[in-house]
From TrEMBL:
Superkingdom of origin: Bacteria
Stored SUPFAM superfamilies: Adenine nucleotide alpha hydrolases-like
UspA domain residues: 1-145
Organism: Massilia niabensis
PANTHER family xref list: STRESS RESPONSE PROTEIN NHAX (PTHR46268), UNIVERSAL STRESS PROTEIN UP12 (PTHR46268:SF6)
Name recorded for this polypeptide: Universal stress protein
Family: Belongs to the universal stress protein A family.
């Protein structure tokens, strides 16, 4: 049914558990997996004339975020390898995370976006489910929302 599934992660315990569920789902479908980490865009210092020596250059920031993304997605990649699934990973840069997720799904030809939800309501849903809600409202592709009922324990 689905040939290519986009699984998003931000490196949190919640998203790691969601990603594991996404890989299991992809295995059931026999689908390829594309893991995605969206990093914030580089922020130039407010006062460009006075850049602290410890402030990273744009190139250093991009390389660090790519390493961070690869680290966050490594568990997904290992799970895909164990499951015998075709897989890939991508670090993208945007301050509008949800829109970038939608764009990547379209550009990469993903049939499904697999995302997590904390299962909260009220203010918790507004604050913590905003990326998922925005993806749902901006895409025409199917989105499977994996809901975590209990808060995971950090490992």
């Amino acid at each position: 049914m689905y040939r290519k599934i986009l699984i998003t992660t931000d490196g949190s315990t919640v998203s790691q558990q969601t990603a594991c569920a996404g890989v299991k789902f992809a295995q059931q479908m026999g689908a390829e997996v594309l893991a995605l980490f969206v990093a914030p865009e580089y922020q130039y210092p407010v006062y460009v004339e006075i850049i602290p020596p410890s402030y990273p250059s744009e190139e250093e920031y991009i390389e660090q975020m790519k390493r961070t993304g690869a680290d966050h997605m490594s568990r997904i990649m290992r799970s895909c390898e164990k499951a015998g699934l075709a897989h890939g990973c991508m670090t993208a840069f945007s301050d509008a995370t949800a829109l970038k997720i939608v764009d990547v799904a379209e550009q990469e030809g993903c049939d499904l976006i697999f995302m997590g939800s904390h299962g909260r309501s009220g203010w918790g849903q507004i604050l913590l489910g905003s990326v998922t809600n925005k993806v749902l409202s901006h895409t025409t592709r199917p989105v499977l929302v994996h809901r975590l009922i209990n808060e995971p324990v950090d490992s």
